Amino acid sequence: MSNKLEEITYLTIKDLKKQSIILPGKYSDIFENYAKELKVNIDDEKIILKDLQQDSSHVDSIVKKTSDNLSALQTSTTNARKAIHDKDDASLSIINNDLVEMQKQIDFLQKELFSDPLTGAYNRKWFSDYYLKDDLFKNDGFIVFLDLDKFKSINDNYGHIVGDQILKYLVNFLQKELDNPAVDILRYAGDEFIVLFNKNKSTILNPDKKMKETQDKLSKIVLSSSKIKKLKFSFSYGITPFKKEDNIEDILVIVDDLMYKNKEENR
What we know:
Layout: H1 2-16, H2 24-37, H3 45-86, H4 89-114, H5 124-131, E1 132-133, E2 136-137, E3 141-148, H6 151-158, H7 160-177, E4 183-189, E5 192-198, H8 207-219, E6 235-242, H9 248-266
Antiparallel strand pairs: 1-2, 3-5, 3-6, 4-5
Helix pairs in contact: 1-2, 3-4, 6-7
């Protein structure tokens, strides 16, 4: 439920940005409407608190495992210095194997911390920590704001399990079509995603052309399963360049508007 609450909060804030005056009651009304739309019972505080506690426990677990690895690293470093001093090759070999295994664990923990648990795409924490500094871009590039078309009807007609599978399929599709070290994909909220083209990693990409080709290709794919004979879905997007030290909020306003224009064109 914590993912749903995050989605409701994002949609509420996004709606409120259009208002010139915001009162507490207005926030509550909009939040409640989105909660009903996404079928989240906000009256059951025990369930909400339990889910948030589970989410917090997950992060605490990652922090603890990371701390344990750091302690083990400190011990290995001390042992390595002694082995080097004593010219103990056997001990150095054991320490090297321990460090290799430790690196695997750290890589796994890092992936857990910065990945969306449903789709495997990067999450907003990764975006905030690695791409931005104080809400300002660290480098030049292009940003794509992507939104699934009529996703609510997919959830209503086929259920949220199918909806989740669609989100997973979309990320896998984007990763294959945009397979390039200059491209990063993150789940922003709900069925909204961001694709980042980093200029410092590649200068041969044509983001506008690549996104249009990807959009056209997905719109022609027909999915089927044992329960669903035919299912097609598509996305709308906006794309705009950004410069180092541009403010993320200013860029999101621009690219969000472009995405809605693209959505209107596709209807």
